[in-house]
Structures are given as structure tokens and as C-alpha cells.
Amino acid sequence: MITFKSIAFASAASVLAFGLGAQGAEAQTRVTYKSASAGTAYYQMGVELSEAIRAGTEEGVILTLEESQGSVQNVLEVSARSGNYVFTTPPGLVEQAQAGEGPFADRPSERYAEIRGLFPIPPITMHIVVGGEGGAVGLDALEGKRILIGRGTFGATEAQRYIDLFELGDKITVANAEIGSGPDALKNGQIDGFVTASSFPTPNIIETAASMPISIVSFTPEQLEATGAAHQTIPAGTYSGINEDIETTSLPVIAYTTSDMDEETAYQITKTFWERRDAMAETAAWWGGISPDMVGNIGGKIHEGALRYYDEAGISVPDDLR
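-> C-alpha cells emitted (322 positions)
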């Protein structure tokens, strides 16, 4: 028999259950993560990072991946985004956005001042690959060679800068950019070497090194300083036949958010990233290249939640990033 009392009890139970469900929903923080287009290394990093954050926070923080057309778009979207938005970009673009320069000169926004850094992700690393045994070689190994540098990419622009900087223009031949894939062209004998810029280990270089002997250019300390670029070491053994460290350059890439993100969420994401970094590196080697000293590459200011973690962990943060 249904009585008023039983109905009241059932109603109270429903309200309690709804309240508990609402509390559970509130306990789960959702974050949009925008990095690169599907199929790229940086999109795959987003997949790995989202899984690490989900597992490390026991599903307390969920990263939802969105495809992107590139770093400039990621920064531009800050002007229209609110809430928990995390995106990746080189720090130089953040500095340009906040100064209203470069690609942001015609699209200024006060929102760019609210961009805050979280942590570094694998950088875009320069690889200058030459066919033939030799392991780590100097720039002089390029002399007399036909090198494919491509066109319209960071790697191509940076390679041309180095050609000019080190006066290699009359010592090498820059191959026609229409040749296509550097690894395939090298295997087919169309070129003697190629330049590529991506996180390491780079799949197409792994494949090339597995099918033929290669060398990779390693810069001297003086050459590295002359480039003005961030220094990056590719550890010995990263690629087959390269049994020495490769000293090269890179373009730092940083995971950013905005001041809309609350301190606790930024703290949990940053803390979990560093605590899960080694586990991620066991299944995807590119995470192994991340070290605490890369925090200094962050452009702009670091989020207060991330700062809280760095201070707790004893990781040095330059004063101008605080």
C-alpha cells in the first residue's frame, strides 16, 4: 500500500541521490585541450597526456581533445574562450600576441594578457640528416651535398637561417622543395640529406635509420650559441647507428591555459603531468626529453596553480615568470 509517508520518503531519497550525483559531477573537472590536427605527433601527445591526467587524478580531471590547425589558431582562440582551455604553442607566439605583433597585429585582444603557462611538452627539434655512416657529424659534413630543407615550415625557415648564418650557401646545394619526402628521396639517391623538425624520436628518421646508415649533424657549443636558439640534446641511441649524443637546437613548445582556470585545477594538472612523465616515457619516448629546466622556456607568466607545484617540488622558476 502506497502512503503519503512512503511517497515522501521516496522523494527525499531521490533528492539525496540527485544531490550526491551533482556533487560527483562537480568533483569531475572537464578541460578542453587543443594542440594539433589528428594524425600528427602532437595530437598523439594529447591523447597520451589526456590518459595520464585522467588516470593520475582518478578521473577527477578529464581532458577533451579538439583538433587544431596550428599554434597561431590555438592562441587566437583565447580571445573567444572562457573556462578551462588548455592549448599548446611555442612561447614566442604568446609573447607576440601579448605585444600585438606578428600574426596578432591585426587581431589584438585584451584576453591575451590572461594567458598563463603550465608545463613544457616535447619541443620541435631540428634534425639535419645525412646519408652514410658516421653517427654524429659536424656542419662540414654537409659540404658538397644536395640537401632538402623543404619550404614553408619552421624546419625549412630555420635551416635556411643556419645556411646563411654559417655561410654554407656556396658549399651545399639546396634541393628542389618539390622533391617530396626527405627519407624517401634519400633512400632513392635523389638527395644526400634532409632537414626535418619535430619532436624526437621522429618516426620517419627511425624508419630511415633502420633501412640505411645515416649521420646527424651535431653543433659545437659555439655554433649553438650563435644560433640563439634553445639547445636540445638528442641522447645517444635514440636512432639506430647514432651512438653519440646529438647537440642541436629546438623550438620550445608549452602547454598554456588562462587565468580563468582556478588554482587547484592548474595545480592538479601540472602536478600530475610531472608525476606521470616517466610512465608516459616508457610507452612514448618523446616524453623522456622533458626536464624541469625547460620550465624556464615558458613565455609570459606561469599560472599560480602551476607555481604552487613548482615551489613545492623545488623546481626553479625565473622571477620574470612569476
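The first strand starts at residue 29 and ends at 34.
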